[in-house]
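**Protein record**
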Amino acid sequence: MQLFIVYPSPIINQIPFTMSLTLRTTLGCTEAVIDDDGGLKCFYQVADILSLDLSVKFTSKEDDFDAIDWEFIFHGHALTLHYSIYTGVSVFPSRTRDAMKKDNRAVVELASVLEKKLVDFDRNRKTA
């Protein structure tokens, strides 16, 4: 499923900035793909939003040479911020296949918040 959010452009006659949010279930749970081409910069930008704007504390950090998994609690749900050089940046329930429906809904809720914050950040960066 792919959702598109269109934000009005602050500059007249300019195409509005859009960002797509992809939800996939290949892990056996809902995974919100923040950026399928995202690099480390995107991963750390999302981590900063989580910790600074949403007051999330990371409970576990696992860094490998080609992937990073940082676990955290969001509204009582154990989620993972994931980075892979192959699949980009995403968020999913830490229990993947054993995730409950409410954990999957928390992923969708968090992803929409992150998407808005990333769009606002990008828009402010381009207008400054």
